[in-house]
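Teaching soon. Got one?

===
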Amino acid sequence: MKHIIQRKECIECAKKLEYDLKERIKELECLYNISSQIESGKSLTQILENSTAYLVKGFQYPEKACSVIILEKEQFSNKKYPCEKVKASLQADIVVNGKPRGLVKIGYLHKAEFLEEEKKLIKEISRMISKAIEKHELQAELKKYVGNLKELVKAKTKELEKSKQRFEDLFENAPDGIVISKLNGDIIKANRAFYRILHYPEDGSVKLNFVKNKLYANISSIRPYIFKNLKEKGHMEGVEMTLLDADGCECSVIGSFIYVEVDGKRCIEAVYKDIRLRKELEQKLIEQNENLEKIVKKRTADLENQKDLLVDKNKELLSLTEKIKESKNKLQTLFDAITDQVIMIDSDFNIKMANRKEGAHRGKCFNKIFNLKQACPECPGAMVFQQKKAITLEQKYGDDYYLLQAYPIFNEQAEVEGVLEFSRLITKQKNMEMQLLQTDKLASLGQLVSGVAHEINNPNTFIRGNVSIIQEAMEDILPILDQYHQKEKNLQIARLNYDVFKSNILILLEDMAQGTNRIKTIVDGLRKFAKRDDGVLVDDVDLNEIIQSCLRLVSNQIGRKAKVKLSLDERLPKIKGNAQRLEQVVVNILINASQAIVKKMGNLLIATSFLEKEREILLKIADDGKGIDEKTMKQIFDPFFTTKRHQGGTGLGLSIAYGIIKEHRGRIEVHSKLGSGTTFSIFIPVKSKEGK
């Protein structure tokens, strides 16, 4: 039994070896076929498409396998690769010159595991494909390079031919003489300019030798000198020498020499620049210089005489300049000392002169002085140009008032060529005028209020008396009406059923009584507010009563904007002060607080307390309005400062309130935050029992 089992195991092992051998043969055939494709010389597209067919045959289940090669996002396959049907796949990157360019991918249409040998196979195939792509691209690049190289050689040869021809043209047509000669003096080649300099035929039909034909004037010394310099330096430049032409006449030239190789032999190339014309010009220049020196000497003598005259005139001019400068400085000092802004403008409103820095820079007067972008609506300067006479008027720019005076400047033709304009800031004076007007209005209002209060109080007095009599009468009449109602069930009074009439008549009478009492309270408050103020601090003031009185005065205005919450300390001591002035402080702050509330219905807190340790009364008025920014906070107590200028505000309310509290030896503190409201805290000291 044991032998049978061992034999079965051997048979299974032999089958497995046979299967593995077949798989390896398939893999080798796959590698061989793909290698043959790569070496076949076919196009890269054919190689990649054919390789996918051979790749499938190298795997376990070729009938259920499909493959694709992706290069630069382009797919190559002998048949379409069904991505959605692939259940298992294996891939390897195609790397060309160190950069990923694509991948080799194989997939099974059913679930299966890939062998390690298959994983190695696809990596080897991807490497072979990478090398094939690299080789293909290199061959294409080499082919392109060879083609470009042939074109380049052809172009360079053509360019060299042109360069040679250009050199020949330059050599022949050069303005200076160019000669190539042997060391013994035989001239191998020379251009037309050289023969022209020496008056020999320009076609070179005469063969010349520097030594035999004695072309140098001092040949015995000049040739050794040339050879010496060439030996030491290899070249010689800019040497002035003399040649002899065909008639034996001297010809001045500048020569430059250098060694050259001609047919493997050392020769000398020389360039001769004809300077005969320059020599003639130099001689003429020397003669002209001599004449010029004579003229200069004569003119110098004349200039010396003129110099003495100019020195005397210059002294006179310096003296006059100093006087003019002194006069100008005095005038400028007077001009700058003018306290008003003074400018001179032309017809286009350009500033030509100014006595202050804000007008010193050139520009339009309305921009530099008033910071406007266009001319003033009623410009005094424009009026002067039109009317040709002086103009004086008041103008308002922003919150400031100015007194403007403009005077014409006439030219010789009696035309206005400029305007001298004075501008004076009169905001303070205007505000004082407004304050006086406001004071007069308040005084008149006080008299009017006093009279109106008297006129209202008279009819209100007999209304109050009559209402109280009617109330007593109704108390007596109602029992009689009750008895009558028992008999007459449909009884109506004033078109109302008796039950409704009885339940409301006493309430109506009570409301009327309260209304007349309220009228009396308001009238008393108005009369008290209009009472003449002597300014002395002798009243025994109950601050709580002041607050109640002020609330009655402004309840109508505040009630539309805020709900008032009172927190008054009943233990509050009285203080010595001026009740009427303290009322003015409270009214001003209450009105400002109500105006600061921008929402539909805000809240207003009025609280009093006694600080025993500090011996001070604290009045706190807080609103939940829009608050005050930091810049405005620094100016709220300044006279005439207001954020409601266009709504008729004068900027005096808080300033006066601050002064009144100071008179009472107190202080005002303000705490505010934008969007969260403002709190005014008023501290007023209370005298001690000893009177301190």
Remarks:
- Residues 646-651, 688-692 have pLDDT under 50 and may be disordered.
- The chain has 15 helices and 23 strands.
- The radius of gyration is 60 Å.
